[in-house]
Amino acid sequence: MCRYIYDMAKNDSEPYVRASALRCISHFISIDDIWEIDLCKQNVADHLFDVLYNEPEAIVRKEAMDVLCTMNLQRKIASRHKDIFYSTLAYCAVSDLHWEVKVGAIRCWRSVICNLLSDEGMIDGVFPPVTFSKEKRKIVQLNEKEINLRFTKMMNELSQQGCLGVILKCLSEDCDVAVILEAKAFLKRLVTELDKYNYIATITATDNVTPNTIHNNPTTSNNSNDINTTPDNLLNKNDSMLKSALNEAVKLEKNTDIVSGDAETAEFLDSDEIIESILDSKDFNLLADAYEQSMRNNIKGDTDESAASTQLRADNERRTIHPFYYRQFTNVSVSEFFATIKRPDFEEKICKQDEWFYAMKI
């Protein structure tokens, strides 16, 4: 039954059917026997990444994000998928066109934090008096110093995964009320958890961080020496390597659209334009697509074969998100994050948003 539902999630023509099938899969993932026997063999994660980047229907993308969040909570995402997982969360939270998908991405970041806290020994929202340390291979006492070290490790990982930069960008630039509210709830919950153990005050005093003082995170500064991280343009600088890679991907996609587009596009192109587009593309694989398009225009084949060929071409042209997309948000270090949220102008903006949201409800 699981395989049939998974096939429906991938291939059904109705978006509501695909969305409902994904919702069923979300429940199946929590059942270990079903996962081990069937779902783990179906490349579910790859399909979810593809849906979240290519699916035009928002209702399907929303359900795909919920499934991805469940997989992360159940620790069903393989280590080889971690980069594209963080990139997908960052892309959906910042660039998706539907607010429910953005909200789902921010909630998925919460699942990341839950897993990190669990890895550091937190149980049911609190640290026990003692825990077993895998690094030291012995039982350690969780005093204030040890807890602060574990919080620092968690925050550094969130910074390196792009989470802190994504949240600040959502709070600063997003125009969807629901997204801003979710980002604020995320921030409030994180700060409350850290304040429970007086972590922010301790780390601020240790690093001498004030609202007007910014320190670079040593774990990220080596990778971002050319990035200006002052508060005014902290969220506007992208990794040059990533930008170049994305530009090349856009170029290739445009050339592919010209050469291997549908019949309605091809009929407006003469042979010289097709040849020029092939030469500009620098990709010999496009030659096969052009030949296939030419044969399809000249030979009136069977309609079923034509439909299958069109579907195959569409599958080959599906975009894939850059696995290091999230790195453009890693220039926000832990110190910078705390300094930004404690800045008077940032707090004032948050207060004004609260007043505005409250006025909307009245």
TrEMBL record:
Cytoplasm recorded as keyword: yes
Family under the similarity heading: Belongs to the BRAT1 family.
Keyword set includes Cell cycle: no
Name this protein carries in UniProt: (Mediterranean fruit fly) hypothetical protein
Location(s) in or outside the cell: Cytoplasm
Keyword set, alphabetical order: Cytoplasm
Top-level lineage group: Eukaryota
GO biological process: cell population proliferation; DNA damage response
InterPro entries cross-referenced by the UniProt entry: ARM-like, ARM-type_fold, BRAT1
Assigned GO CC terms: cytoplasm; nucleus
